[in-house]
Each structure stands twice: as C-alpha cells, then as structure tokens.
Amino acid sequence: MICLFGVAVHEVCLTLMMTSISHPLIFTILLMCDVLENTFCLWSLSRSLNQIKSNKVVPCIETNTSSHQRTTSTTRSSSVYNLVRDFDSSISEQERKGVSLFITATLLQRELIETFVPIQAMGIISMLYNLDVKSNALVSRWTSYNEYHRTIMYMGIDFGVEIVVFVLTIVTLRSIFPDVSAWRVLSGLLKMHFYPMVMCMYAGWYFALLLQSTHLGMDTTFRFSWLECGGKENSTWLGGFDWEC
C-alpha cells in the first residue's frame, strides 16, 4: 500500500504537470522518463536472472545461524531496483519464488495505477472546466478552449502510451516468470486491497486538488496579485489567482 500511494501521488502530479506544458518536447521528455524507468526495471530483472542461470552454484550445508540471518521473503524493500539487485543465487528456491511474485505484483500494480490515473485526470479536469470552478487555480486560468483541448490531448496520449507499456510489461514478465499469471496477481491485489486502494487514490487526488484551491491562500505562481489590491475599493476576484484592482 505504501508503494501504491507513492505511485498514485507521483502519477497525479505528473498528469497535473501536463496541464501547463506549452511545448511538445517537454511532454515527450516527461513521457520518455516514465517509460525508460519501467524498461530499466525489467531489463535489470532479466539480466539478474540470466546471471543466476549462468553461474554454477556449489551445494553447501547451511547452518541455523546463516538461515536466521538471511532476509526472508516476507521482509522486503518497496523499491523494485533493490529487490532486483538482491535477487541472486544465495537465496533458496522458495524465497526466490516469493521475491519473484512480489516483484511481479509491484510492477503490475504500478502499471495499473499509471493507466487509471490519466483516465481519472481527464474526467476530473473536464468536470472542473465545464462547471467553471473559479476556486480551482488550474482551470480558471484557461482563457480559451484550445488550452483545455491540448491538455486532454496530452493526457490521451499518455493513456495510450501507458496501455502499450502495460501490455509489454505483462508479456515481458510472462517470459521471465512463466509460472506467474499477471491476471491472477492483479485479481488477488484487487480482491484483498480494493478499499485501501480506493482510499489511497482518493487521498492523492484530494491533496492535489486542495493545493490548487485559491481559498487556501496559496499562490503557486508566487505573484500574490491580491496584495496589490490591498485597501483599494471595488477590487474584484476574477478566479484562480487573478484579481482586478
């Protein structure tokens, strides 16, 4: 759940960043960083497994002390890279299967969240824009329909890329771990942690939208336009961070 909340907050912030992108090159860089991160994890995992298969392991007698000092399959890091780095031939077959299942669940959960968040973002931003919510600093600054259309287009492209990456991740994991079913892993995660997942997603969006509310008095542009209207009569709040003095 810690990993899920971190990915959810990261993806929500990333989609909100796309609303203020003015050049396609910036959008491409953000998208490629996300894709390359997932590709690097899968490549590192595949390389580690190939090294294990190529190494010759000499059987030895394990003492009780060494078995207690070893990290068990129930105590693991939330970082996929650290799990891949520690995925060597020094652990037992049972522990290796546990780590394999945990790595698969972590990657699939992350891709699932990264696929759903752009859909949620398109729905939330469309609702805020169509309702003309003045207290939201994000949509209140849009002066034309083109800005809204560009934002939805970027999020749609992001959703399409995440779908492709999700499918490629499932195919790659199936080739690396033939005994692990991606559908069964995702079904198990949703069955056991559905309500905590919904609460984490709700908390991530609530926190992000709360920071955009001008009623909190936080001006992320650091212009603080309302200070110029101090003491002036007929000062009008236009919405967002915009004031007419």
| Number of spatially distinct domains | 1
Count the DSSP helices: 7
The mean pLDDT is 77
Strand order of the largest sheet: 1-2
Quaternary status: single chain
Q: Please give the number of β-strands.
A: 2
Structural class, by secondary structure, is mainly alpha
- Helix content estimate: 55-70%
**SSE string, helices as H and strands as E:** HHHHHHHEE
Sketch the major β-sheet. 2 strands, antiparallel
List keywords for this structure.
about 240 residues; mainly alpha; two-stranded antiparallel ribbon; elongated
Brief synopsis:
The protein has 245 residues and is mostly helical.
Explain what the structure shows:
With 245 residues, the protein is mainly α. Helix content is 65%, strand content 3%. It contains seven helices and two strands; from the N terminus they run H-H-H-H-H-H-H-E-E. The protein has a two-stranded antiparallel sheet. Helix 1 (2-17) crosses helix 7, helix 2 (24-54) runs parallel beside helix 6 and helix 5 crosses helix 7. The protein is elongated.
Layout of helices and strands, plus pairs?
Blueprint: H1 2-17, H2 24-54, H3 64-69, H4 80-85, H5 93-130, H6 145-176, H7 182-211, E1 236-239, E2 242-244
Antiparallel strand pairs: 1-2
